[in-house]
Write a structure and sequence with these properties.
The relative contact order is 0.11. The chain is 16% helix and 35% strand. The protein is α+β, with helices and mostly antiparallel strands. The strands form 3 sheets. A 12-stranded antiparallel beta barrel has the order 1-2-3-5-6-7-8-9-10-11-12-13. The chain is elongated and about 85 Å long. It is built from 6 helices and 20 strands.
């Protein structure tokens, strides 16, 4: 049943390819797990439960705070973060009087390896491997510390968005932590795993985004190891985040506050209370469409467990995919209500998504994709989609055609505007050479990064913004529609656009995978 459900989910795909992908993924995860866990991992006092800095596995929007957005189907994100924190370890005497941001008794260098994968629309999963890289303790006080470096816990998570879209929404996140540290008195002997259930909400307004997480941590505490230390129990957790995108420099500024406190009163184990609260500020820089870098700092808001006096962090996220491209579902024909209806329009399954507008339509060319930074190397099934669009335009008798090119915000504004125009002209050339439409009958326009339809601050938002659209209307509708659609500033004289209907279809040429950088002179 499980295998059957899996193949249903990836129906239409090459099963051999899927099996090979799963095998390679599992083998890579095994090597990675052995590499990180290969060192002896023991601690005489503390474990991964004291690590409050937990970057998200999908790498979307913020740093440690979840947004409701999930990875698109079969998009995979790889992330690696390191953080250096001071005055984090617990002390059995009151050391707070001598500990501060410039005078510290301990320092820890910690790493987080993250992998996230989208399984379907609104659902993704992830794995996080936190590990101790190094520690330094210089104190005469009785304290707890790690005995050796290595993996401290294994964390699995899954997120499901049950309301909203890429601009706002609500989701639930379920994560499970498996402790990899022996003899942790704060978890207890033979402790079970820790489960966290969170409710996530967020909203994006232009370049500004906010998010909040509210949750509960269920601990299966073990028996006492140290009679003076009581294992921690359940706790509440909450966090708040905000970000602002600067498209001109492809950078987001991110602020976060995350906190936790016990659900019931317990004896104070150390000078650092069970409650904790930390404030963070950082930058996220998108180096390419796939690769982003993080850097920032955080500090405790009060003297709590595992909240450092100062934390510095740096990390990266690299997203790829979709690894498997799902075949589009055929559009069902309209239901016949009466036998008096003479015909039912047949819908070409190769047609792209269509948005209806007054006296016209917008075709969002999802299959017309270009290699990165290229305007003439087409990939994917562009030919089928363009043929379907051209046939519909001619059959419907639309008399105005605009090919609009768009890009994401990575790169300079002038470069993106030029690139988007060149991509629009590539589409125009194919329509002209293969469907009896004269060059002078089409207006190609490049809008660069000025009209995004998704958040340019993450991988899949940028992917959606790199698009070409064909806008078709009846005669005389373009000038008024241009301003309504957001095309302000493009007040060129309205061309007289006439589409010549095909009487006899000519032999179609294949869409070149490589076109000359300079287009030949237009034919009148």
């Amino acid at each position: 049943m499980l295998a059957e459900s899996f193949w249903t989910m990836v129906s239409g795909q090459d099963k051999g390819f899927v099996l090979k992908l799963i095998t390679r993924f599992n083998r890579g995860m095994m090597y990675l797990f052995l590499l990180v866990w290969g060192q002896a991992v023991y601690a005489n006092v503390v474990g991964g439960d004291f690590q409050n800095f937990n970057p998200t596995t999908n790498g979307i929007d913020f740093v440690t705070v979840q947004s409701s957005e999930t990875l698109d189907p079969w998009v995979m994100n790889f992330g690696y973060f390191v953080n250096y924190s001071v005055n984090t370890l617990p002390y059995f005497e009151d050391a707070s009087s001598i500990q501060n941001r410039s005078n510290y008794n301990d320092s820890i260098l910690y790493g987080d390896l993250n992998i996230g994968l989208g399984l379907s629309k609104n659902w993704d999963v992830g794995i996080n491997l936190p590990h101790l890289i190094d520690q330094n303790v210089d104190s005469d006080f009785d304290h707890g510390e790690f005995e050796n470096r290595g993996l401290t816990e294994l964390r699995l998570n899954t997120k499901y968005r049950f309301f909203g879209d890429d601009t706002h929404g609500l989701a639930t996140v379920l994560s499970t932590d498996f402790n990899m540290v022996d003899d942790n008195p704060y978890l207890g002997k033979n402790a079970g795993f820790v489960t966290v259930l969170e409710l996530v909400g967020d909203m994006t307004l232009g370049r500004f985004a906010v998010g909040t997480n509210l949750g509960y941590r269920f601990r299966q505490a073990g028996s006492h190891i140290d009679p003076d230390i009581e294992p921690y129990g359940d706790s509440f957790i909450a966090s708040l985040a905000a970000s602002y995108l600067f498209p001109s420099i492809d950078t987001k500024i991110i602020t976060e506050v995350f906190a936790g406190w016990p659900s019931e009163g317990r004896p104070n184990n150390t000078s650092r209370e069970e409650s904790s609260a930390e404030a963070l500020i950082g930058l996220k820089y998108d180096r390419t469409t796939n690769l982003s870098f993080h850097i920032g700092a955080s500090t405790e808001l009060f003297n709590g467990s595992a909240s450092p006096d100062l934390r510095l962090y740096a990390g990266l996220n690299y997203a790829i995919g979709p690894l498997i491209k799902e075949k589009p579902k055929p559009t069902p024909a309209p239901e016949i209500i009466s036998e008096d209806i003479a015909e039912v329009e047949e819908v070409d399954e190769d047609l792209p998504e269509i948005e209806q507008i007054e006296k016209g339509e917008i075709y969002k060319l999802a299959k017309v994709e270009f290699k990165f930074a290229s305007s003439y190397r087409a990939v994917g099934e562009a030919k089928k989609e363009l043929d379907a669009v051209a046939n519909r335009v001619l059959e419907k008798g639309y008399t105005e055609i605009v090919v609009a090119g768009h890009t994401d915000s990575v790169g300079s504004e002038s470069y993106n505007k030029k690139l988007s125009l060149q991509r629009a002209k590539t589409v125009e050339r194919y329509l002209v050479e293969n469907h009896n439409i004269k060059t002078s009958e089409i207006r190609s326009m490049g809008f660069g990064e000025s009209l995004p339809i998704a958040d340019n601050g993450n991988y899949q938002g940028r992917q959606k913004n790199r698009r070409v659209e064909v806008i078709v209307m009846q005669e005389g509708k373009w000038p008024g529609y241009a301003s309504d659609y957001g095309y302000q500033g493009w007040n060129d004289p309205e061309p007289k656009v006439v589409v010549e209907k095909k009487k006899k279809r000519s032999k179609k040429k294949k869409l070149p995978t490589r076109l000359p950088r300079k287009l030949p002179p237009k034919k009148n």
